[in-house]
Amino acid sequence: MAPPHPADPAPHAAVVYNPVKVDALRLRASVAAAAAAAGWGESLWFETTTADAGQAATRQALRQGASVVIAAGGDGTVRAVAEGLRDSGVAIAIVPTGTGNLLARNLRLPLGNLDVSVALAFEGAERAVDVGVASATRADGTTRDYVFLVMAGVGLDAEMIVNTRPDLKKHVGWLAYVDAGVRLMPKATPFGIRYSLRGRPESTAHVSSVLIANCGVLPGNMQFLPEAEVDDGILDIAVLQPKGMLGWLKIWRRVTWENGVLRRSAVGRRIIKLTESDNERTMTTLRAPDVRIALEEPQEFELDGDDFGPVVSVYVRVDPRSLVVRVPVV
Q: Domains of the chain: which residue ranges?
């Protein structure tokens, strides 16, 4: 950012942080040092609460003229700040401290270095990325809009999040989701859906889970949907229809071996081509700017790794390049 005109007040940042996941004293010291080095004014500080995950704090920061908003916490804090900043033109700077750090991983932002992450807020470049918007309808007929940055899901994917053991997550991080999946997969019951892309005629399917991705990398550098890009104006959709544990093993092989290894070479891509029809029976991938899904019965719903309760239908659409993110200068 160019230095302010002498007649203009110095720009200032706002920090929205989760006190449970952040060392507030270290964060304050790091932000103060970076702001002073950049010639910025004193930063505003907002602590998230059970009543406000960060949306209201971010809107207050905008009203107070913040030039950038630093989101310090897990994926829930980043999602909440992004919701408040969407379409504002004011950038989000991410200080990742959570288990997944999903958007940070997809944007290849620095992980595990507080000072480097904070410095990006004041001296980083800006990149416009897409935001997913999900209109979720409950069994009582109420509908509410939510935003997400990485992935939305209904079915087993969301049930895994509901059933993840907090004590295990605290000790092993994202691997706790694998534990939940192993416990749930053998007894997972497929459910019926009707879905429509771009408002076209509906299709029907019996599925275990449907995932709608804004970008495709999961924790562990897992290339779940390798064609997904965070700024292409398109959602990548995975319809999972495994039959028993063998079906889940085929999906696991596709995600870890084919997407993570074979796609990197021409020979590997030819091997994938030969097994394509078998893969499509267990995991169908689709691409569209929006998708409407109606469920035969209520299913759990998740956004960026957080549970949002059961829904009976969702309409998910992309809001292209509506969020500005501070990223390293290249």
A: 13-123, 131-321
Distance CA 213, CA 216 (A): 6
- What does the pLDDT average to over 238-255? 73
What's the CATH fold of domain 131-321?
Tumour Suppressor Smad4 (2.60.200)
CA–centroid distance for 51 within its chain: 21
d(CA 193, CA 146): 21
Q: Please compute the mean of the pLDDT values over residues 290-315 and round it to a whole number.
A: 96
pLDDT at 277 over 60: no
Structure tokens at 261: 């290894």
Backbone CA torsion sign across 264, 269, 270, 272: positive
Average pLDDT of 153-178? 74
> What is the maximal distance between C-alpha atoms in the chain?
68
Q: pLDDT value at position 48?
A: 97
Q: For residue 281, count other CB atoms closer than 10 A to its CB.
A: 12
Q: CA geometry: angle at 216 spanning 123 and 104, to 5°?
A: 25
CB 54 within 8 A of CB 142: no
The answer to whether 288 and 200 have CB atoms below 8 angstroms apart is no
Contacts (Cβ under 8 Å, ≥6 apart) of 185: 156, 245, 248
Alpha carbon of 125 to those of 3, 68, 191, 220, 292: distances in Å?
Answer: 15, 12, 45, 26, 35
Higher-scoring residue by pLDDT: 151, 9: 151
Residues in contact with 24: Cβ distance below 8 Å, sequence separation at least 6, in sequence order: 17
The answer to whether residues 112 and 317 touch, using CB atoms and an 8 Å cutoff, is no
| pLDDT at site 82 | 97
The region of weakest confidence among 3-7, 84-88, 93-97 is: 3-7
Look over the chain and give the mean of its residue pLDDT values, rounded to a whole number.
86
Q: Which residue has the tokens 């965070």?
A: 230
Give the pTM: 0.84
Q: Give me 274's structure tokens.
A: 């030969």
| Total H helices, total E strands in the chain | 11, 16
Q: What is the CATH number of domain 13-123?
A: 3.40.50.10330
Q: Is the pLDDT at 298 greater than 60, yes or no?
A: yes
